[in-house]
């Protein structure tokens, strides 16, 4: 059985997308088009794997990539894009709060988001 891929994307129609575009000095229309392109490409993957894409409306703070009990975490902030942020490896441990906190936040965002793919 394959593990499903779940992706959260900023809603290109949300006010947070306009704010985020301004933070990185990009036209809002360009950022929105990039998000829509990413969503379209992810939709294409449904032919070969289990992909679910969700749109959320809040200002992005964390960039998360998770595989089982390992997560890679970076931050979004005004003045730089998420891929320019340092990335930290966070692993699940018996008493470690970082993995659990980020996992909980991701699950809450999925629950409050709208599935598009």
Descriptive report:
The chain is of the alpha+beta class. The protein is 36% helix and 26% strand. It is built from 3 helices and 6 strands, in the order βααββββαβ. It has helices spanning 15-23, 28-44, 97-112; strands at 5-10, 51-56, 62-67, 70-75, 88-91, 114-115. The strands form 2 sheets. Strands 1-2-6 form a 3-stranded mixed sheet, sandwiched between helices. Strands 3-4-5 form a 3-stranded antiparallel sheet, with helices on one face. The longest helix has 17 residues, at 28-44. The relative contact order is 0.19.
What is this structure's SSE topology?
Layout: E1 5-10, H1 15-23, H2 28-44, E2 51-56, E3 62-67, E4 70-75, E5 88-91, H3 97-112, E6 114-115
Parallel strand pairs: 1-2
Antiparallel strand pairs: 2-6, 3-4, 4-5
Helix pairs in contact: 1-2
In short:
The protein is an alpha+beta fold. The protein has helices at 15-23, 28-44, 97-112; strands spanning 5-10, 51-56, 62-67, 70-75, 88-91, 114-115.
Number of DSSP-assigned strands: 6
Number of helices: 3
Oligomer: single chain
Q: What is the overall shape?
A: globular
Strand content: 25-35%
Report on the biggest sheet: 3 strands, mixed
Which structural class fits the helix and strand makeup? alpha+beta
Approximately how much helix is present in the residues?
A: 25-40%
Rounded mean pLDDT score: 92
> Are there runs of 5+ residues with pLDDT below 50, and where?
none
Strand order of the largest sheet: 1-2-6
H and E string: EHHEEEEHE
User: What integer value in Å does the Rg equal?
Assistant: 15 Å
What's the end-to-end separation, in Å? 20 Å
